[in-house]
Amino acid sequence: MTTPLRRRALVALAGGAVAVSTVVATTPAATAATTSSTSAAAAWLSGQLTGGVVHNELYDFDDLGLSLDVLAALRSLDAQPAAQQQILTAVSARATEYVTYTFEGTTTIYPGSAGKLLLAAKAAGRDVRAVGGRDLVADLEATTNDATGESSDTYGLFGQTFATRGLIAGGSDEAATSVGFITGQQCEDGSFRQNLKAACPEVPEIDTTAAVLTTLAEARAAGIAVPQAVVDDAVEALVGAQAADGSFVGNGVPNANTTGLAAVALSRAGRGAEAAKAATWVARHQVSDATGGRLSGEVGAVAYDAAALAAGAEDGIDEFTRDQWIRATVQAAPALTLVTGTRAAVSVPKYARSGATVRVTVSGLAAGWSVRARFAGTSPSAAVQPSAGRATFSLRVPKGTARRSLVVSDSTGRTVASTAVQVLAPRTLRVTPARAKVKRAKVQRIVVRGLTAREPVQVRYRGKLVKRGYATTQGTYTYRFKVGRKVGKATVSVRGAYADRKGSRTFRVVK
Predict the structure, then answer these.
(1) Are the CB atoms for 329 and 259 separated by under 8 Å?
(2) In angstroms, what CA-CA distances link 125 with 26, 129, 169, 447?
(3) Which end of the chain is more exposed for a tag (fewer CB within 10 A), N or C?
């Protein structure tokens, strides 16, 4: 018989050493930024559910813990409320199965599981002392050492954070002691060790440190004292471990799980720049409609790392790899709300002829991001993969005369560049001379109406260009000129930005 613990270990190995437990997302749902990226991630995650739970096809069991991780990710994205409800209902009905394991008459309570379910129930406004017939606060207290604050059977500090957070959320008198136990596991470099029975590792354990920062933030919010130095040192440990490209290493490789957790923890700690940089790295590993290959039906999923993304595009996601994809996405998805997007520069003519084609050049784009361009109210262009941070588009200009917004967005749906283009349709300009007759060598004054604000103007008199200028902000142009000594009919003609925007009037030059 395979025990739940054994099953969890097998799943972790099958998933490429992705952390078995995933942190409950901490971005407040009320402030989650909804974009095509976050919406796609939420839709993909909800699509992994069967009857409200994630079923592991490889080992044929319902993974209730991972199901709660999906719930937490959806809540952080403020998306798929029906799926959230379905998950909580399904897991709550099997609370005893998830929280405990009985073997030969001895029942073991897993405090990490109890804490995770308590957090989910609390966030949904449920009574955490009556979830599926269980008092989850009592379960946590029963597994917590009253003197030290350590919980049993957490299998490391990462699992302990769930137990501690559960005690905090449940209002337990043992919460403060449990928080104290966690702060006591801080290493000299400011990070937190995962293995409670080993010395601090030489390389900081980012997943665990990020989970601890989340726990400490919740402790403070509940009024539990946490030394500022503990938080500051942990934050600096994360910042110091961040690579130049924004990523964080876990299990020996830069990955979306670790980087996603770090991004959210840094955001909560007020390190917005570092958080956004990490979130951007995560977003580059999300499947978009530009990814292509055999991932075309998996838009929204986040790959564990670059190798997983490339393998997925070539081979798709099957029963051997789906668990890793789900675990990567639940930890990475909350970070997608933190992506600020690269601000690029867009070059386009100031004026564009209605219905024509205009060339758009965008520079300063982030490497590895596909981009699209569109005029407001029109369909986006085909995706373009920038070369050396530069992309060029040919866009059909909308019809009519109006100031149109032109937007360039990356594969996450976020705007990276924008500008405005004055679109001009053909028009007959109204030219009004001050006088119908002007004595030779005297001055005539004309007023041109029907131009757009600051539109370029050319004035010709008797067929010769005599003036260039720009319309006022009201779309008018006034010009005074000497009519010369030649008598008879004289024509003054005006052209705007294009030859099909023109007008003329004739007057007489007399002696």
Answers:
(1) no
(2) 17, 12, 11, 70
(3) N
Residue 503 is classified by DSSP as E
Number of helical H runs and strand E runs in the chain: 15, 23
Q: How confident is the model at residue 358 (pLDDT cuts 50, 70, 90)?
A: very high
Q: Which helix (H) or strand (E) holds 289?
A: none
pLDDT in tens, 249-292: 999 999 999 999 999 999 999 999 999 999 989 998 999 877 87
DSSP string, 291-336: T-GGGTT-TT-B-SSHHHHHHHHHH---TTTHHHHHHHHHHHGGGG
What 8-state DSSP symbol labels residue 380?
P
As beta bridge partners, residue 65 has: none
Cβ proximity of 282 and 256 under 8 Å: yes
- 206 has a pLDDT exceeding 80: yes
R_g of the chain, CA atoms, integer Å: 32
| pLDDT surpasses 80 at 5 | no
Rounded to an integer, what distance in angstroms lies between the CA atom of residue 59 and that of residue 54? 12
Q: Which residue do the tokens 């018989």 mark?
A: 1
And the tokens for 132?
């599926």
Q: Do 54 and 44 contact (CB within 8 A), yes or no?
A: no
51-79 residue pLDDT tens: 999 999 999 999 999 999 999 999 999 99
In this structure, which amino acid lies at residue 389?
G
H or E segment to which residue 106 belongs: strand 106-109
Task: Find, among 27, 125, 133, the residue nearest to 72 by Cα.
Answer: 27
What are the DSSP E strand ranges found in 328-401? 345-347, 351-353, 357-363, 371-375, 390-396
Pair 473, 493: CB distance under 8 Å: no
Token pair, residue 366, equals 């982030």
pLDDT tens track for 385-432: 888 889 999 999 999 999 999 999 887 777 889 999 999 999 999 999
| Range 17-42 average pLDDT | 58
Q: Which is nearest to 65 in space by CA: 8, 123, 1, 137?
A: 8
Q: What gap in Å lies between CA 244 and CA 222, rounded to an integer?
A: 35
* The pLDDT of residue 261: 97
pLDDT at 108: 97
Nearest-angstrom CA–CA distance, 365 and 343: 8
Distance of alpha carbon 511 from alpha carbon 508, whole angstroms: 10
Q: Quote the CA–CA distance of 469 and 445 in Å, as a whole number.
A: 15
Place of tokens 């709550």: 92
